[in-house]
């Protein structure tokens, strides 16, 4: 008689506890399945009484299987999948953005591009765009796709391409078996935050908020402090040697202290190994006209204020090692937006201020994407993308890319 109530209690626990977790982990694939199976097993076990060792082993094996099986299946599918022959249709800006967002690992092979021009003047079309052949205008798209046996036609919406154009092309392709797709974009939101839904006859893209789970946020803080403490201990001999080199190379303190804008714009003192002469701040005004960086950034190729050892430290990114102390203090994170100067934040609008909603980082998307080679707008875009789409797995990926960027000296100056 007690088995039915226990089973009912287990179902209630699954509905009240497991389902919200399942929904919040939407898009995480194997992690979502593993968490769901684990929570279901725990909920049912609690409802029926504490499990014996055999039940514990069963639960562990079920969790491992739920994690490994879909992962192996996904890897096998990726290994066997061949890129689809694809024809792109759209104006120059829309097509260029689409190709850039797909990146080199896209599961398609671009066979050609049909450009949609305002005046529909096919004779003035370029022969190629971003290295891919331009094969004609909008009117040539259907015939070219059929003649060249492409698997898919992708239309990139823009100011010139209308809903009528999409419908007309779908009519032209309906007997061919060629798939027609329309590229949708929600700026700044990764696919895992986007869920399609129907409202009447209209397709909507529901965008999940970028709120961070408290458990994930706590995990980031714990990981930051643990890794920073371990690295400080391991790198202490190297840091002491670098301090001696800086002191012997030029007069002045080895550690450079500078006020930066932290979380929510709260100022903090950031530590770096000194790479410039001690009068660098005073000489800034006389070098302003030589600034090569756009926006509020300041950059000069071959900055005369940089010391001999300082150039070596910057090339190897060793000047940033003392920032591990900032991470340990809680002022910074290992991964995050570029730490801004207070004078930069004075000119921030509501849009750019979004990058201050998390702690600045020792490294981030801005560093693994070129660092000093990036312009101001690109740096802001990367920081905002990081803030809006943060995941712990993403941080680990950036950390790996940072090691590679430092070893290759990518964008260092």
How are the secondary structure elements laid out?
Layout: H1 3-24, H2 30-48, H3 53-80, E1 84-90, H4 92-102, E2 108-115, E3 128-129, E4 132-136, H5 141-147, E5 152-156, H6 163-173, E6 179-182, E7 194-199, E8 202-207, H7 214-249, E9 255-261, E10 267-273, H8 284-287, H9 308-315, H10 323-329, E11 333-335, H11 342-345, E12 361-363, H12 365-368, H13 376-388, H14 392-408
Parallel strand pairs: 1-2, 1-5, 2-4, 5-6, 11-12
Antiparallel strand pairs: 3-4, 7-8, 9-10
Helix pairs in contact: 1-2, 2-3, 7-10
How would you describe this protein?
The chain has helices spanning 3-24, 30-48, 53-80, 92-102, 141-147, 163-173, 214-249, 284-287, 308-315, 323-329, 342-345, 365-368, 376-388, 392-408, and strands at 84-90, 108-115, 128-129, 132-136, 152-156, 179-182, 194-199, 202-207, 255-261, 267-273, 333-335, 361-363. The radius of gyration is 27 Å and the shape is globular. The mean pLDDT is 79. The strands form four sheets. It has a six-stranded mixed sheet with strand order 3-4-2-1-5-6, sandwiched between helices. The termini are far apart. The longest helix is centred in the middle third of the chain and has 36 residues, at 214-249. It is an alpha/beta fold. α1 runs antiparallel to α2 and α7 packs antiparallel against α10 (323-329).
């Amino acid at each position: 008689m007690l088995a039915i109530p226990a089973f009912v209690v287990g179902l209630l626990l699954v509905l009240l506890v497991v389902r919200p977790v399942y929904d919040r982990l939407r898009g995480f694939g194997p992690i979502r399945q593993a968490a769901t199976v684990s929570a279901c097993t725990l909920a049912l076990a609690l409802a029926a009484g504490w499990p014996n060792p055999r039940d514990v082993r069963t639960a562990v094996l079920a969790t491992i299987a739920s994690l490994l099986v879909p992962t192996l299946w996904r890897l096998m599918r990726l290994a066997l999948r061949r890129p689809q022959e694809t024809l792109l249709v759209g104006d120059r800006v829309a097509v260029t953005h689409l190709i850039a967002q797909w990146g080199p690992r896209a599961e398609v092979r671009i066979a050609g591009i049909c450009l949609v021009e305002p005046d529909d003047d096919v004779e003035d079309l370029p022969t190629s765009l971003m290295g891919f052949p331009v094969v004609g205008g909008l009117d040539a798209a259907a015939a070219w796709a059929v003649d060249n046996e492409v698997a898919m036609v992708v239309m990139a919406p823009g100011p010139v391409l209308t809903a009528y154009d999409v419908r007309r092309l779908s009519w032209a392709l309906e007997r061919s078996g060629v798939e027609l797709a329309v590229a949708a974009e929600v700026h700044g939101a990764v696919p895992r935050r986007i869920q399609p839904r129907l409202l009447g006859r209209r397709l909507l893209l529901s965008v999940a908020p970028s709120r961070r789970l408290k458990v994930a946020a706590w995990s980031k803080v714990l990981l930051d402090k643990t890794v920073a403490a371990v690295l400080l201990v391991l790198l202490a001999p190297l840091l002491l040697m670098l301090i001696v080199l800086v002191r012997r190379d030029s007069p002045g303190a080895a550690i450079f202290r500078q006020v930066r804008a932290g979380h929510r714009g709260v100022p903090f003192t950031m530590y770096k190994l000194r790479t410039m002469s001690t009068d660098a701040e005073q000489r800034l005004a006389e070098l302003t006209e030589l600034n090569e960086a756009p926006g509020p950034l300041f950059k000069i190729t071959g900055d005369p204020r940089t010391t001999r050892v300082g150039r070596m430290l910057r090339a190897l990114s060793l000047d940033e090692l003392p920032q591990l102390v900032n991470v340990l203090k809680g002022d910074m994170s290992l991964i995050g937006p570029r730490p801004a100067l207070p004078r930069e934040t004075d000119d921030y609008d509501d849009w750019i201020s979004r990058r201050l909603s998390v702690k600045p980082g020792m490294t981030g998307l801005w560093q693994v994407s070129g660092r000093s080679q990036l312009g101001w707008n690109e740096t802001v875009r990367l920081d905002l993308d990081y803030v809006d789409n943060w995941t712990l797995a993403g941080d680990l990926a950036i950390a790996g890319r940072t090691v590679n960027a430092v070893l290759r000296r990518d964008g260092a100056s």
